[in-house]
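Deviations from the work plan: none for this task. Representative record:
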Amino acid sequence: MSDPETYSAAGEVGQVRLRRTRMQRIWIDLKNAPPTALFGMTVIVIYAFTGIFAPWLAPHGQAEIFSQPYAPWGGEFLLGTDQIGRDIFSRLIYGARNTIGIALATTLISFVIGGGFGLMAAITQNWIDQVLSRFVDVLMAIPSLIFALMLLSIFGSNAWSLIFIIAVLDSTRVFRLTRAVSLNVVVMDYVEAAKLRGEKLGWIMRREILPNILPPLVAEFGLRFSFVFLSIAALSFLGVGIQPPTADWGSMVRENASLIQFAKYDLKGAMTPLVPAAAIALLTIAVNFVVDWFLHKTSGLKDEH
Amino acid sequence: MPAYQRYFGWVAGVLQGDFGYSFSGRAASGVDRSRAVVDLIGPRLNNTLFLASMTALIAVPLSLFLGITTALYRNSVYDRVVNAVTLTTIATPEFFVAYILILFLASLYQVFPSLANIDASMTMGEKIYKSALPSMTLTLVIVAHMMRMTRAAIINLLASPYIEMARLKGVTSTRVILYHALPNAWAPISTVIAFNLAYLVVGVVVVEVVFVYPGVGQLMVDAVRTRDIPVVQACALFFAGTYIMLNLIADIIGIITNPRLLHPR
């Protein structure tokens, strides 16, 4: 506190405004976040931690086979073993790394493709825009799961073709969004000025437009991630996605699904296929919570009630 | 033959109802036991359409009812509960919903069978009983989407000035909904319904695999796994065709209920 003897009102008004550092601003935002968003962020952090440190956290290897298949819960195997005797708990932990890692890579690629072409189409607005937009229309006319199944049967089911097929199919939505939001920015005077200054396409994309359309893109990234995550899980569940012995939540559900028939005799054992499925559900719900909060915050909308 | 010639050959065959022969069953010994794709898909097509229409019959009225009532009593406890439940169903994978239903309704309490292995010889009642769980799973997933969109469409309409005018005139709220809001809401609602029926056609794939339901979806997944291209092509054509048709119907209904769309500005 200032000394009351030397206090002057003019001095306080004239004081240089204290600038908050980035960390302080993030901290204030976090403190004001609703409980759902905090819950979502906690879940995401836990998943990320599990995924990154999977080899140190898991008690056994993901493809390590033990002599006892379908072991019950508890004892040496916390969640039992699967049909050929692999530890479910370890596979669950490795699954966090594999499933989320692949979904994240796919979403990143789809944003690079979709965002890049979307910006290019919005800036040039010539025949490139026409060709790209019509091409995207064609891709979007067919449901993406069916399209993905068709392409997987052509290119074969392995992790790489899975990543690229889903990324390309998903980039159509990113393209639409990027193009739509950047059309509003492209007409701004400073973009015109940059064009007159002789800046190249890449500069205008990265330095003039991208910073101004970032909030909707970040929110879309969250949503796209959960969609990609769900569709990869669905494809793996169908047996055409991530291939064994790689631990993956979608295929784990399928491999242990028959256990559910014995719920009357061993309820815990019957829950085994539900655990990875619940892990998938929890992450998508968490991401949705965070995206909701982020959209709400950046759009500056107030509650209607 | 070059690829484009084979492609047009295939298209010409499809137009005459000839989808070619499945790769499976082609033995190296020279004995060809492969079956025509039409014979594989034909009976399964009926099953898939049966499941889809059964679900649609339950899901469409239910979601319209939920959507309209939640829009009317928005921000009430009822609205919040329905919203929370639907948000959770949207964010969870279909197979999670399916297995939870199996756990409670087929395994712990054996109300419905968990295997929906229906065939043509069964009676209608038997078929409905057997496909109760798959159709319930699909209903839960579809209703969530459809109800939220209906709710958004109705709320959007209720905010328009002419509704407020009707309220100020003293028209009862039932009359406002049925005679003032609903005629204008048909276009967005029909879009929502068509969109979700299209989604239903796709969601069928996963659900059919879970319940071992003999439909086109399961056939397609099996064909993808064995890379049986002719079968995959025909199934994809069926799914994509249905999807596009439903979207087209939605657009047409939108134009019929709102003739302004006929004249582009």
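Residues 173-210 of chain B form the longest helix (38 residues).
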